[in-house]
Design brief:
By secondary structure, the chain is an alpha/beta fold. It is built from 7 helices and 11 strands. The mean pLDDT is 97.
Length: 242
């Protein structure tokens, strides 16, 4: 596991490292005449990454080769402050160099169950498949202080093994409905990257990485345990207890 963990001085350096990874993956795909299919997450840490990509990587990334899918979305209008798409649009996707046809958003404003079904069909139509699930090239994940990832929370671990590629989840504290990729879809990706920053994640992260007793209650633990190509990009604050 240690070979899959990279620790940086701060959140800024962590974001740069992931940006460089995306750049290199996109260039490799472009040279092969293919597309980089990436699923992205919301939150303050990804926002920092997307802003960096928009400000400093216009020329160095072949954006026509990058296709954006979503890991999860809150069931709100795209203009709502809680919208993962809205955040990503403001930070990166509104830039003129991002091809609109490469953006495949989850529609949080639609009926959640209908949207989960629509997005599942979209993944099947746009992506290759393996072992009964669509295959993304890169899934970018975060982790909450409660150990959740995507919109798979500790109280709905059944989503890890769902027969569906996309499902409806419920945030346990607010009761807000969300659309999320399921565990089988996430784990089917070619590469999974966790970008985690902040000392409030340190305790749970230590339990998961060290496979401590009781860590099975955290959705992130199961994604890591089941996936063969997971990498962690951490700042020192998140990694302080490793």
């Amino acid at each position: 596991m240690k070979d899959n963990i990279r620790i940086f001085k701060n959140a800024d350096e962590s974001a740069v490292a992931v940006a460089e990874l995306i750049k290199n993956e996109a260039i490799t795909k472009k040279q092969a005449g293919k597309k980089l299919n990436i699923a992205i997450s919301g939150g303050s840490t990804p926002k920092q990454l997307f802003t960096l990509l928009g400000d400093e990587y216009e020329k160095s990334i072949p954006w026509d080769a990058v296709r954006f899918f979503w890991v999860d979305e809150r069931c709100v209008e795209p203009t709502d402050a809680d919208s993962n798409f809205g955040m990503t649009y403001d930070a990166l996707l509104q830039r003129a160099f991002i091809p609109g046809e490469n953006i495949f958003r989850m529609k949080g404003e639609d009926v959640p169950e209908n949207e989960a079904e629509r997005y599942q069909k979209l993944l099947w139509s746009e992506l290759p498949a393996r072992d009964g699930f669509p295959v993304l090239d890169l899934v970018l994940l975060g982790m909450g202080a409660d150990g959740h990832t995507a919109s798979i929370f500790p109280d709905n671990l059944s989503l890890l093994d769902s027969e569906f590629s996309v499902s409806v989840a419920i945030q346990p504290i607010t009761g807000q409905k969300r659309i999320t990729l399921t565990g089988n879809t996430i784990c089917n990706a070619e590469k999974i990257v966790f970008l985690i920053t902040g000392e409030n994640k340190a305790d749970v992260l230590k339990k998961i990485i060290k496979k401590e007793v009781g860590s099975e209650v955290y959705p992130t633990y199961h994604i890591v345990a089941r996936s063969s190509n997971v990498k962690f990009y951490l700042d020192k604050a998140a990694a302080v207890k490793l």
